[in-house]
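Give me structure tokens for this 459-residue protein.
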Amino acid sequence: MYKKFRLESAKSKFVKTHQMYRGSLNTENTSSCAASPVHPPAPLKPLLTASPYTSTSSSSSSSSSAASTSQSTANTSIKSHLYASDKHADAFEPFIQISSPLSTPSSALCHTLSVQTAQTPSSELEWSGSGSGAGFPQCVQRTIARQIRLVYPCVGKGRFGEVYKGEWRGEFVAVKTFNSADEKSWENECGIYSTSGFRHENILGFIAADNIDRGLYTELWLITEYHENGSLFDYLSGNQISAQVAVKMALSIVNGLVHLHMPIESCNGKPALAHCDLKSKNILVKSDLSCCIGDLGLALSGDRDGKVVQQGSVRTGTKRYMAPEILAKRIDARYLENFQKAEMYSVALVLWELLRSCQFDDERTGALCSFEHKMPYFEYIQGDPDEALMSKIVCEQKIRPSVCAEWRHNKIMSGLLRLAEELWVENPDERLNALRLKKSLSKIRTNLVQRATLPTILA
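Here you go.
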């Protein structure tokens, strides 16, 4: 009975202390936590350096020692890694900084990533006391990983892990899982997603990042918006599209790429970035058939001088989509602009895939034309080619994806083909940049609207 009384008393004292603490936070941080409808807030920053779980002493002389010991206690009592998206700020109000068993990200982009838990309703807090009944009870928070119900089997696989459909608070989300061995890629992707000013309608929407203990290993989670249509590769493999929809998809992809490539100089700005693994499997198709770019695990960022921040840690993307200068190892990896130029070659191959999947009219004969979706260079390579073979095809033999003659007999198709041919030239300095490509695609779309041939889905 005495032990039970002490436990209830400690619980009551903790709740009262926590309410007082929350009240002070609301008073002191109201302006900094307000979300702007135009500019999303900066990434969450730690609010405390000591955990109230480790000491409830009211003595001022003991507060400093409690702060110094709380870090080690948090390591053993709570294991959580969570970055909250501004879009879901109502579900992730900052609560308390904790320490993580995972290492701190080795290279920050614009800021140091904050390791935080998220505010959880009191009904979702678990109480535990020491086995002897002595001491104060510990409050262990449920993280988002414990609130999501995964739907099996996985909906996709990549080089760093698997992607699952999950259900969270009545909505579907996508859960990308990483093994702890791929922590570097997970950290890089989390860091980029949590960069201030990064959100964009044509970039995959980020919700949170977390980890979950699987007993023998730690599984790292990246939670994003879920798109039922899947990747662009999957969608094109099972559906034919009109030339007008191809223009819409291409323009939305390039919109996202412009946002990645361009630095934003402001308090809520972002650095210039390069995706470094752009391909149809890393592009998602939304319900309205516009697209968004995902899978930023290999992305690079640039500093104010245009140099790559992650010097010495540059990793290559998918060999089939590699630019000639990367295959030939002629790229100067010190400067971000060189990777952005190489990325435009990858865009050309994605445009080719869109062309390959179109159903269109041959304006010369009036015949309805359609082709089966294929991957670039399908005539020469199957599966995942090695770098030597791709270098021989692209650099030595100077082969490019095959062009169907019928494409040149349709104004929309020929316009897209012309852009693809300008992007896959060998000299990177002769390729269009993302902004120029966006203007060219916008002109094609404007012409379609003026001709009143654009379906309502593109209006």
